[in-house]
Here is the input.
Amino acid sequence: MTYTQIGILFVVTVVVLDLFVLRTRLVTRKGFWVAYAIVLFFQFVTNGLLTSLHVFTYADTAIIGNQPADDGPPPFFGQGRIFFQPFEDVLMGFSLCLLAMALWVFWGRRGVQRTPMSGPPIWRRSGRVPTAPTGTDSASPGRTGDSESTT
Here is the structure.
């Protein structure tokens, strides 16, 4: 299977997942396309730079177009390339972004992790400090051997 076929398969799979399985319908929203345009700009900059410097190379049989015969950079535009990168990279980037956003919306709608897990403990935000029950050691339940003595 070529990189082109895999890219097309991923796009179709993730769009079907977005529209019919997760039912987030992000591809029908203007906000998604604005966010994706921002991501796409930075994908063109970073991936294009890395491809033009030959950090990434592709087999001619796996992509549309071909690698340059000499050690020069690939074409900026044309021969299946957009800003030095193969067109297939755009397909894969779209699939990745749509899948990540669709899962984010899907799990967010179901209330997964509604309360934040980072930051100060909840009792510090409320202003009340938990107290140890009377008649017990002042050490925390999970700590051993490092309790302070109160004399």
About this structure: DSSP finds four helices and three strands in the chain.
